[in-house]
Design a protein that fits this description.
With about 240 residues, this protein is α/β, with parallel strands linked by helices. Helices cover about 40% and strands about 15% of the residues. It binds pyridoxal-5'-phosphate (PLP).
Length: about 240
């Protein structure tokens, strides 16, 4: 975990960043888990590359974006400006015609949510297999994005058959109209079923600014935290 840097000028961004880290550590300890099991992915959408550069100085390493149009130039700007090692996580719905672009900077795809995206990914030349989470549909509406939990194993078989993809787990976004614990439990159950099929796919991407502590209690290994760190977005 990143040590607090006493020499750093205290900034509001730094305060919020280190507070979230402390809350993650406390939630992990409270759940009887090691805080090193939880990766903080800072979601930087709708914020400029400079915010990513500031966060790199604070010790952040993992960043997430949900739109390729915004992420591609931002990732390039960060890469051209900083030599500090970092990774990009793609967390939004990825259009098939943006796959090639997104693969140029993304190390992890959290949102493999449909058959057509899988087909587009399979066609790509990827030097090192791409880490992917299967995104679950946690709503009662099959028309919404994501794989329905009952179809998870069938879909996972196809992902496992793709030589250029490395299935690492499941991802979900808790519904707003009920207690997030309901969805975090669904995600955890899905994760357990998936691990019977693919023991290595043990990671869980769940939890955002409003609910990441609860997600950690249900086994989240990757929390995607935006506004609690970055402040309000400039829409
Ligand atoms: C924006 C976003 C987040 C972060 O949301 P906050 O509430 O700002 O923490 C997490 N996951 C996904 C998929 C997002 O699009």
């Amino acid at each position: 975990r990143h040590p607090r840097l006493p020499s750093l000028k205290v900034s509001e961004l730094g305060d919020r960043y280190f507070e979230v880290i402390e809350r993650i550590d406390a939630a992990a300890v409270g759940a009887g888990r090691a805080s090193s099991e939880v990766t903080l992915v800072v979601i930087t959408k709708n914020h400029p590359a400079q915010l990513v550069l500031d966060l790199l100085e604070l010790g952040a390493k993992d960043f997430g974006e949900n739109r390729d149009q915004e992420a591609a130039p931002k990732a390039e700007q960060v890469r051209a400006t900083s030599t500090v090692e970092h990774r990009w996580h793609f967390v939004g719905q990825l259009q098939s015609n943006k796959v090639k672009s997104a693969l140029e900077y993304s190390s992890v795809l959290h949102s493999l949510d449909r058959e057509s995206l899988l087909q587009a990914l399979v066609k790509q030349q990827i030097s090192k297999p791409l880490d992917v989470f299967i995104q679950l549909n946690l709503t009662d509406d099959p028309g919404r994005g994501g794989i329905e939990p009952k179809n998870l194993e069938g879909f996972a078989e196809k992902v496992l058959a793709a030589p250029n993809l490395n299935l690492i787990g499941v991802m979900g976004v808790a519904a707003l109209d009920r207690e997030p614990e309901v969805d975090f439990e669904t995600i955890r159950n899905a994760s357990q079923k998936l691990q019977v099929l693919a023991p290595g796919a043990r990671f869980i991407s769940a939890g955002m600014s409003g609910d990441f502590e609860k997600a950690i209690a249900f086994g989240a290994t990757h929390v995607r935290v935006g506004t609690a760190i970055t402040g309000k977005r400039n829409y």
